[in-house]
């Protein structure tokens, strides 16, 4: 039986999260110093086409590789808040320009905006590491 399967087990997990997670989870929030010292760095590798005509060909193989890096402050508290607020502000600014009704993808809403600039101004950086032509 799992510890979370009983009310007593759930009580133990919620009362002593640090013990059961080996110190990873805890009941109290991080200190200001811990938040200021934390950061994140994410790498993305994308494969695609250098030309729209190539992309439309049947059985075409991607011919380009792009590697990017996104960095910023603590992702759990600070970066998430920064990103959500900037997205909300842009959505409010553009609400008259958005298509009416339906479900909108992030690319439709934020693609033609200055979201990246706004995020960079607030500590979330986007860097192009490399763009390579793949020869297949």
TrEMBL record:
<dbReference type="GO" id="GO:0005739">
    <property type="term" value="C:mitochondrion"/>
</dbReference>
<dbReference type="InterPro" id="IPR051276">
    <property type="entry name" value="Saccharopine_DH-like_oxidrdct"/>
</dbReference>
<dbReference type="GO" id="GO:0005886">
    <property type="term" value="C:plasma membrane"/>
</dbReference>
<protein>
    <recommendedName>
        <fullName>Saccharopine dehydrogenase-like C-terminal domain-containing protein</fullName>
    </recommendedName>
</protein>
<dbReference type="GO" id="GO:0009247">
    <property type="term" value="P:glycolipid biosynthetic process"/>
</dbReference>
<keyword id="KW-0732">Signal</keyword>
<feature type="signal peptide">
    <location>
        <begin position="1"/>
        <end position="23"/>
    </location>
</feature>
<dbReference type="GO" id="GO:0005811">
    <property type="term" value="C:lipid droplet"/>
</dbReference>
């Amino acid at each position: 039986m799992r510890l979370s399967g009983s009310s007593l087990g759930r009580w133990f997990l919620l009362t002593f999260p640090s013990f059961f997670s080996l110190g990873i989870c805890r009941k109290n929030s991080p200190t200001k110093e811990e938040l200021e010292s934390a950061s994140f760095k994410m790498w993305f590798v994308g494969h695609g086409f250098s030309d729209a005509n190539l992309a439309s060909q049947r059985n075409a193989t991607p011919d380009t590789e792009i590697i990017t890096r996104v960095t910023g402050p603590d992702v759990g508290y600070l970066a998430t808040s920064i990103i959500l607020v900037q997205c909300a502000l842009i959505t409010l600014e553009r609400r008259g320009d958005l298509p009416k009704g339906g479900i909108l993808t992030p690319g439709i809403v934020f693609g033609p905006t200055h979201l990246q600039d706004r995020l960079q101004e607030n500590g979330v950086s986007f860097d192009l590491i490399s763009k390579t032509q793949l020869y297949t």
